[in-house]
Design brief:
homodimer, mainly alpha, globular
Chain lengths: 499, 499
């Protein structure tokens, strides 16, 4: 019997999945293994494969098959129907931006990235400004086209590209709730912690020791070293596909936590990918449900599960064993103080769990204004500094610690930042639901037993893949629509407590 | 002005080059970095990219462009004309074998590879025989189709696929000359060496130390670590592209030479690839001139340059430094005896420079008979053992040391083996010409200065790329047509001398 249009589509998307896996490996290698001088060669390979991936997704053949499969959609079961829906979304997204615009954007962002590096070196935003202007201009065109194709406002269309199913209205509601509570909460937390400053953890912690510690913790979390790797790179990331997943971290010889928690964060991503429905792993419906949900899993692991008193119980003897440390400063209370220390910082990457959302809300506000045109690119440094001062009562003294600190806009990522906070909010709500369902969770964590957590997550979150819209997925997993309430309850409980 | 058909072809082949680079990286990763359990995922990625590469090369568009470019070929300069010729060859080669046959061959060889492993474990050729039979059947079909398309006899077409421009007649002439001289030469060498057995080099040589030694030697040879890597894998190999070249080796803790010389051998391949004409590096004419010439460069490095008295002068102090060894057995004479020791062995991979060609000539004779059908697969073990006994006066006592030792036939590589000996013969002729042109060569090597060698090779061999047919390339580089004479002179001088 001949393959149905839907079955033929599965075949096409299986091939696209293999392409995406190859692209992911090429990116992993570029960041972890590739010799310094080979970036030009890798650039050509990535461009060739990306172009071909785009071409395969946008052929008239796929369009025809989609139409025919949609005409017979009433015959399809639940999963194939959701799969068909995701195929359509991917294809419409790809076709909305003409290759000429993609090529211009690729060139403009490559140039802006170079000047972003230069501007940081010289501590001078003006070096970046004209190139960022060009990127903004092109992103605006892209947002308009995407918006038309998806029936969304331009900025919403950009957000939708990273986290389908989340609108500006959703973000505004959540961010408003956070803006109301966070400033007071930050003040109180700093006050409560003032009398309990952590004792410094002095020492040099070799990479080999930190690595061994991280491997033991990742194994406990369930990371499959027979189908995955842990390596080092300048910034932690996760690449690969569920059958070959690769996380990285960066070890700091003076800090026993940052490398470990970077690895734990990425393992959150990895476990999500590994928990996706296996029988759909090479199809669109078998993919993660967008960036905010991805980030919810990494933050759930890093913040909710591992920056906790119960995790410190599990971790302390391992630190003694692997890092060969001892002394009163390595007791549970002091380690926990290190993991939950709140401090105002001008730099997002240095921010703690409590102040981090403030940095994101600033970027969200400014990037919308830049795209609308109500904030000229040239005025960004002053707008940035004023906004941070108003939000966090701290003011960058230069561009490097201000609007030059992130690469995102230079490389064209507008609509990306909100997913960081949405991830934290989703993690807060999942955390609350999971703890309600598993009252013994803290004891399990203290014993280094994460199997129950993973089972719950697979059943309620990971295993859904992209079958449900994100809001519906969260509602089914937690029993409630997505709001900031659980997240704020979690922050209050954690940061108003004497550490 | 619109791009000419030839220019459009360059664009198409630039893309194919990027695909080949990506495929090479995926293979490198599979052998060096990939987690054990991920082979299935990688297999899907390789298959998807190979299929697409084949599809892009065989589109009607490429066929039309080739015809139009060939109609205007009289307008083309030397290099573009040769490039067009190579494009045609690649395309005709790709189109000759229908995808259905390629797919059947891929399945049959994948199965035969599994049973080759099983048969080796069980030391029983019968486990492999039916699967090898199936592979032979399909390779025969492929050879017939390739032969039709290229106007060659079937076996010649297979050889042509690995080393274009070399015929069975060429191989027969060379192998006849070797068969006449080698048996006597081997007897004499063993006799001469009998009274000068090398003193064993006892010790455990850590991977870290051997690696440092290898890196220093590779740097001296000119290997560019800013655009290349040295790693470890089960068997040494070279992957990558000229801008990102990756060699591997395997260190043996009990043997201070095998890891180093494996790395040197692969660096011969790498330096060839790096010396290819830079402005044509993403075009067919900018590629290497086939497997025999590739092998000539790795053997030139390993055998002619580095298993030499002058190289031992350079190497000895480095071994003392990096391996932390000392004692009379580490003197130059004893090291050289180790590097040139001749011993009859049943296993090709254990063979020395002098006996190695014998193993290849056996395979060449048998694989032609198998393909013709005059030697049934079932009779292979006995034919193999008898043949080796007749040629080398030594007889395998089991299949593992006999016809099961190589994977090549199981994975469908017929017509591949001769290139090993052709490479040695070409290396011998290049070595002689290079030494005539650079009388100070041995002093340079003894001083660890390889710049002059590399310049000569780039000017006379590497920089030609695929612009000339292989026989013409050798004639221009050495001033003589390819024969076994220089190679035999080299072997006699080296192995009849008292070590």
């Amino acid at each position: 019997m001949a393959a149905s249009p839907y079955e033929q589509l599965e075949q096409e998307f299986r091939r696209l999945h293999a392409f995406r896996g190859a692209l992911s490996l090429l990116r992993w290698d570029a960041a972890v293994m590739m010799p310094r001088g080979s970036a030009d060669v890798r650039g050509e390979q990535l461009a060739a494969l990306e172009t071909e991936h785009h071409a395969l997704l946008t052929t008239p053949k796929v369009a025809r098959l989609l139409e025919r499969a949609e005409a017979g959609a009433s015959q399809l079961e639940d999963w194939p129907l959701a799969n068909l829906h995701e195929m359509r979304r991917q294809r419409d997204h790809a076709i909305a931006t003409p290759p000429s615009l993609i090529a211009r954007l690729a060139k403009a962002t490559a140039r802006a990235e170079v000047f972003w590096v230069e501007a940081k070196k010289a501590n001078d935003f003006k070096l970046l400004a004209p190139h960022l202007e060009e990127v903004v201009h092109l992103v605006r065109d892209k947002a308009a086209l995407l918006g038309q194709a998806r029936g969304l406002a331009p900025y919403d269309a950009l957000v939708d590209g990273f986290t389908p199913g989340i609108s500006t209205a959703d973000i505004d509601t959540i961010f408003k709730a956070l803006s109301r509570k966070l400033p007071g909460l930050i003040n109180q937390a700093i006050e409560v912690q003032a009398a309990h400053a952590p004792v410094p953890l002095a020492g040099k912690f070799t990479v080999a020791r930190q690595r061994s510690l991280s491997v033991e913790v990742l194994k406990a979390l369930g990371f499959p070293f027979d189908r995955g790797r842990l390596d080092e790179s300048e910034h932690p990331f996760t690449e690969g596909v569920p059958g070959d997943i690769r996380v990285t971290t960066r070890f700091d010889l003076n800090d026993p936590f940052s490398g470990l928690l970077g690895a734990v964060h990425e393992t959150g991503h990895a476990m999500y990918d590994l928990g996706l429905p296996a029988e759909w792993r090479d199809q669109p419906v078998g993919r993660d449900r967008g960036l905010a949900l991805e980030e919810s899993q990494s933050l759930l692991f890093e913040m909710n599960l591992c920056r906790s008193r119960s995790f410190v119980k599990y971790l302390r003897p391992l630190m003694e064993k692997y890092l060969q440390v001892s002394g009163p400063e390595w007791d549970e209370a002091n380690l926990y103080r290190h993991l939950t220390r709140v401090r105002r910082s001008t730099v997002r990457m240095d921010a703690d769990e409590l102040t981090y959302p403030v940095h994101i809300m600033l970027r969200y506000e400014l990037e919308k204004k830049i795209l609308e045109g109500s904030l000229p690119v040239a005025d960004l440094p002053e707008a940035w500094n004023a906004n941070l001062e108003q939000r966090l009562n701290i003011r960058p003294t230069n561009d490097v610690d201000g609007c030059l600190q992130d690469i995102h806009w230079a490389v064209g990522h507008f609509g990306y930042f909100p997913s960081y906070v949405l991830g934290a909010v989703i993690a807060g709500q999942i955390n609350e639901a999971m703890r309600a369902a598993r009252p013994s969770l803290d004891e399990e964590i203290a014993a280094g037993q994460f199997g129950g957590v993973m089972d719950w997550l697979r059943d309620n979150v990971h295993g859904v893949g992209a079958r449900l819209p994100v809001q519906e997925l969260i509602k089914q997993a937690t029993g409630k629509p997505l709001t900031a309430a659980a997240y704020l309850r979690y922050l209050e409980a954690k940061y108003l407590e004497v550490p």
